[in-house]
């Protein structure tokens, strides 16, 4: 378990990850702001628990795959803040995860949660087959800040999102809803490389 108990107010990282071919299985990551820094290299996070509120899965140059996790929302904010700064190979791909309201979540969270916002102008985040029961904002995706939107080159994409948290969604123009064939292009292989079977524990897939 990786736990940063600082709480709201500033960055408080639970795990800072710069490694390649790193697999974290059935692990717990607990924080509030900037919980999991997936900043460089290729990483998989499988069948674990990741909790936070503000930009709590973030990084600049990392390529990461998140599969079969429960993602806990502890307050208003953004699950991801991709800081991708150019059209490189990096991405965050999420497949078959659940996004829930964490135990003891801050009051006033309803309607103030998003899949992500762009820390970098080339942010690339894909959510597939996500069941969302946390109380998301109807837009689902957010700009960085008003007047500093950073959305001109982002790929914020979803396929087969379901659950009460995404009911009645009204996505902004910079968000993409993928078809089944388009979604098939985003996978563990696209995220961390076609050689993933040589280093990922298949029992967690």
From TrEMBL:
PROSITE patterns for the chain: PECTINESTERASE_2
Record's keyword terms, sorted: Aspartyl esterase, Cell wall biogenesis/degradation, Hydrolase, Secreted
Top-level taxon: Eukaryota
GO biological process, alphabetically ordered: cell wall modification; pectin catabolic process
EC number(s) on file: 3.1.1.11
Domain Pectinesterase catalytic: 2-192
Gene Ontology, cellular component aspect: extracellular region
GO molecular function, a single term: pectinesterase activity
Pathway the protein takes part in: Glycan metabolism; pectin degradation; 2-dehydro-3-deoxy-D-gluconate from pectin: step 1/5
Positions of the catalytic residues: 55
InterPro entries: Pectin_lyas_fold, Pectin_lyase_fold/virulence, Pectinesterase_Asp_AS, Pectinesterase_cat
Cellular localization per UniProt: Secreted
Catalytic class of the enzyme: hydrolase
Recorded catalytic activity of this chain's protein: [(1->4)-alpha-D-galacturonosyl methyl ester](n) + n H2O = [(1->4)-alpha-D-galacturonosyl](n) + n methanol + n H(+)
Family to which this protein belongs: Belongs to the pectinesterase family.
Function according to Swiss-Prot or TrEMBL: Involved in maceration and soft-rotting of plant tissue.
Name of the protein described by the UniProt record: Pectinesterase
Native organism: Tricholomella constricta
Source lineage: Eukaryota, Fungi, Dikarya, Basidiomycota, Agaricomycotina
């Amino acid at each position: 378990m990786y736990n940063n108990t600082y709480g709201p107010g500033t960055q408080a990282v639970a795990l800072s990850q710069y490694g390649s071919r790193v697999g974290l299985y059935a692990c717990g990551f607990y924080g509030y702001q900037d919980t999991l820094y997936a900043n460089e290299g290729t990483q998989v996070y499988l069948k674990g628990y990741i909790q936070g509120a503000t930009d709590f899965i973030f990084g600049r140059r990392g390529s990461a795959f998140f599969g079969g996790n429960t993602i806990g929302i502890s307050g208003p904010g953004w699950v991801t803040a991709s800081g991708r700064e150019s059209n490189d190979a990096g991405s965050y791909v999420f497949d078959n995860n659940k996004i829930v309201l964490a135990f003891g979540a801050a009051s006033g969270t309803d309607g103030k949660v998003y899949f992500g916002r762009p820390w970098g102008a080339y942010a690339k985040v894909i959510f597939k087959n996500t069941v969302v029961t946390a109380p998301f904002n109807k837009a689902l995706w957010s700009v960085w800040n008003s007047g500093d939107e950073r959305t001109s080159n982002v790929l914020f994409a979803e396929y087969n999102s379901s659950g009460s948290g995404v009911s009645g969604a009204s996505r902004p123009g910079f968000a993409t809803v993928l078809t089944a064939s388009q979604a098939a292009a985003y996978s563990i292989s696209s995220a961390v490389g076609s050689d993933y079977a040589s280093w990922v524990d298949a029992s967690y897939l």
